[in-house]
Amino acid sequence: MGKRGVPGVPVRVLAVLLALVASCGAAPAERPPAAVPPAVPAVPSLSPAAAPARADPAWGVVDSTCAPERLAARPAGVDVAVVEAHWDRLEPTADAVDAGYADGLRASVQRCVDAGVRVVLGSGLQYPPGWVRALPDAAVRDQAGRTPTNGAVDTVFSAAVAAAADRYLQRLVAAVPADRLVGIRVGTSTAGELGHPGPEASGAAFDSWWAFGPAPQQGQGLAPGQIPSPLPDWIPGRRTWQGRAVTPADARAWFGWYSGSLVRAVADRARSLREAGYRGPVHVPAAGRGVLPAALDAAVAVVLDTAVRDGALRRGLDYVADLPALAGTVPNAVVDITGLDDATAVRARRLSPPQDRCRPGDAEALVSGAPSLDDWPNQRVTAAAAARAGLPTVGENPGPPGPTTGGTADSDSEADQLRYAVSYARGCGLSAFLFAFEDDLYTDRSGLTPADYAAAIGR
């Protein structure tokens, strides 16, 4: 389960910048789904590779205000700040930008940059304004014709929503000093992460498959780069389609289409950012661990008439397949593990022997069918999948328990999250770690202080 951030603040972010990306010149309606330009040399980076003497990840905080007093009090070595944007605030109407909000966002970024703090921008695509929700066929639909109870719009398949998102990203890039950013984060869900809506969106846990509007099923109003269902009107779990038996191969192809649509959507948003003039990488938040290969094999054997832990199957999360596809279609993509030291790590740490820490050979074990994989925590699976894909990883702790964060009653306390997540970030070879949330270091909400962060990272 991912997080969106503390109430009133969007989902957390972190960044690593490896190389600039050349612009793609195709018009939005003509964009090819996979072809990408080659990477070219780059700008400010959070990668340890940019500073060979530095073995540690970069350190930072999530949901930063870039307030002068906080910048002055930040611990030594904590020099990354995530500044979050809000789509509904920048574009409250379809035909205008809120100049006051744009000025405030630009000022926040500039304050951090002027203080020597590297800034990652949260795109805020998970907060569409009301006028986007009102667009024709903007609502995502499941196999029963239901729309999400959490207000999710179809950021994956809808051409109308895609066009609105593209224009928003152009305006967002124009509103901030984009050449000074070290990352922009893009997701597809209302949590700002990779995935179709989760079980919380339907009111019926593990029940909904979110690809049954006219765009994904009939190709009507389909977003650029997407393709219609390979089995139109087939509902997972049904044993026949158009008068013939559905085979496991059919089910696997359908799920590959459903899961792959997420990567195609991120690739299209990344292309929009490049066309708007942004030259940095795109950070893709990855919640949970996705579907393990053995679990997917079992699911397709019964033509998807099953559910998988954390709703990963219906969210369309298959990191073993998705992350190589992401590496091939989004130049300089970075995977953000959004639950470093979440409840799955707590459970894995208590096993004998413990299974919480990344180890050499994890990438190979992930596809070998090793029975121990089910004991691995989310962070270890996602780090192994990213390593197989050759993608850098960053990470962030889940934060305090609550409906708008990734923390649960089974998670570590925030003090323990700080301690363990820092250790996991080092042990899993993450390029950067951001503590969630900045407010928890500068208010009395958690009991933590900047000095605690400094002590955790040895500064």
From TrEMBL:
State the source organism's domain of life. Bacteria
Q: Which InterPro entries match?
A: GH
Region (Disordered) residue ranges read 389-413
Q: What is this protein called?
A: Beta-galactosidase-like protein
Query: What are the top taxonomic ranks of the organism?
Result: Bacteria, Bacillati, Actinomycetota, Actinomycetes, Pseudonocardiales
**What are the UniProt keywords, alphabetically?**
Signal
Report the source organism. Answer: Actinomycetospora corticicola
Give start-end of the signal peptide. Answer: 1-29
